[in-house]
Amino acid sequence: MRRDTQHALLLVLGGVMLRVCVDDSVLRYVRPGHRWLLVAAGTAAVGLAVVGAVRDLRGRTHAADDDHAHDRSHAPWLLLLPVLVIALVAPPALGADAVNRTSGGTVRSGDLYPPLPGGTLALGLGDVVDRAVWDDSRSVAGREVVVTGFLARHRGDVVLARMRISCCAADARPSMLRLRGTAPEGPLPDGPLPDGGERWLQVRGTVVPGTGNVADRYVPDLTISALTPVPAPSDPYES
Q1: Class of domain 96-229 (CATH, top level)
Q2: Which residues, listed in sequence order, are joined to residue 29 by a DSSP beta bridge?
């Protein structure tokens, strides 16, 4: 690979990393706390590319002896394809399609569950699922909760879902609540959900006791009492 090609690839890679860190689009791929690691990596890549190009222009470095054998090759530029996909297409956060491909709700069993206050609970969707499935005290069974997520269809049921990540989108797994009943705002959609992006809702409902076990693939039932459309959050994932 020619040295000028190396510099160009480094420059584009670093530039795209910095570009996605400028706004919240980086949250489609990694946890918020990892933004600054990507900023540092992108800055280093751009810096190396600029320094290397300047040194070459000043004649302080020379191409390797076998560079002439690859001058006509365009293969190295194929490395730019995944970078350009992120830069130009900007893949969305994982959503309903990822839920449809999963075999069930994946939750962690080692969490601790402190006591909850009385009244309606405003909790993360993943927290509700974990407590319904793994908390021996059944702290959310029969409780009214308010959760936010997107609509998806899983094994014929309409679910409210939220993708959870530990590090980045590569380890994403869904948490799901199976929606039951009819809200005052209207019934749940029947048939395929419309395309064109996730439908985010804030849902108030009651967790059905006894659900969220191996029989229902660890997807608890939620009897809904209110549905409120909301915009997609800047950070679509839970941890």
Answers
A1: mainly beta
A2: none
Domain boundaries, the chain: 3-89, 96-229
Identity at 101, one-letter amino acid code: R
From residue 98, give the alpha-carbon distance in Å to each of 63, 137, 149: 46, 31, 14
State yes or no: pLDDT of 55 exceeds 80: yes
Q: pTM of this prediction? A: 0.62
Give yes or no for a contact between 175 and 129, defined as CB atoms under 8 angstroms apart: yes
Burial environment of residue 192 by CB neighbours within 10 A (0 to 12, 13 to 18, 19 or more): exposed
Tokens of 5: 């090609």
Q: What is the pLDDT of residues 123-157, one digit of tens each?
A: 999 999 999 999 988 899 999 999 999 999 888 88
